[in-house]
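Subject: Protein record for review, amino acid sequence with backbone structure tokens
Why sent: The fold of this protein is of interest and is recorded here as tokens.
Enclosed: The protein record, placed directly beneath this head.
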Amino acid sequence: MAFVTLNTSKLQENYCFLDKLFKENSIQWTVVSKLLCGNKLFLENLISLGIKSLCDSRVSNLKMIKKLDPNIETIYIKPPPKLSVSEIIKYADVSVNTELKTIDLLSREALKQDKKHKIIIMIEMGELREGVMREDFIDFYKKVFELPNIEVVGIGTNLTCLNGVLPNEDKLIQLSLYRQLIEAKFDKKIPLVSGGSSVTIPLLLHDILPGGVNHFRVGESLFMGTDVYNDTALEGLNTNVFKLYAEIIELIEKPMLPTGEMGTNVEGESHSLEVDQMGETSYRAIIDLGMLDVDSKHINPKDNSIDLVGASSDMLVVDLGDNKNNYKVGDLIEFTMDYMGVLRIMSSKYIEKRIVEPAAVKENCK
């Protein structure tokens, strides 16, 4: 068997660190919960920390959040698909948008459900993922302001996720100025400049974040403790909130090189043989974990004497060398994971999810 654990005490420490940081800088923030893939157990423990706003890119996950706590503000954080408009109005208090036709559909559906739907309009700032082009955004806002049951609550941008464009002072100053321009031209109040994410946190820590940015959407730094900007750990945060364990289901001393006519494996890859391993043997273990569950490039054994050899759909092979730690069939091997490793594991229905060290909720993170 294999299972992943969430340490809610360490998660709480991360949450309190970030919550204090944002409050000290008069910044609102929303937790990006998509890493949890709508898992009820993990969401319950996340919500118990006192979180008031969650965003996700799957309507089914927002539905679960609203089921657990109808009072939590929910944000749908990608441009809504036409086929999901009805459910987005039902389960998302806010959505991020870049298409007028979609916002018109949201408006019509909000009228039908007798709701006021809030939106954040995303602006293209160089990352080339979602975002209205800067030369079009004034006309875009003008048309949106004319739609009933739609309330524009913010202007935002996404950086780093696709092409790795980093946020900087200049880009975020521009974003803040666009908010001022819209407010002045249309005599409207735009409360949020949603220009922050995990990658923007170092700008805040180094006191170079433009003052106009007042909303962050944060997932990776909360759950993984990472400094996304510098691709390292963020001082003050735990990096081991999640752990993965997989059971050894076979352990036999075997040759280090395969024998026979070589073709391609299940992934269509062909392997060259290392001549210096000819005649050598080592202890190889098969563990109850496979490509259906995780990409082996995004996990690492905690025991650095273990080498990952390869994976097939339901099994992963590791090399234990001379097995100096005396592993046996039935033992568990512990793995650490990066963000994508956790995301793949969490999306696998075959991996059990467990809570360890439940947090004693500290009101206001005191």
Notes: The CA atoms of residues 59 and 87 lie 7 Å apart. The two ends are 39 Å apart (CA to CA). The chain has a mean pLDDT of 94.
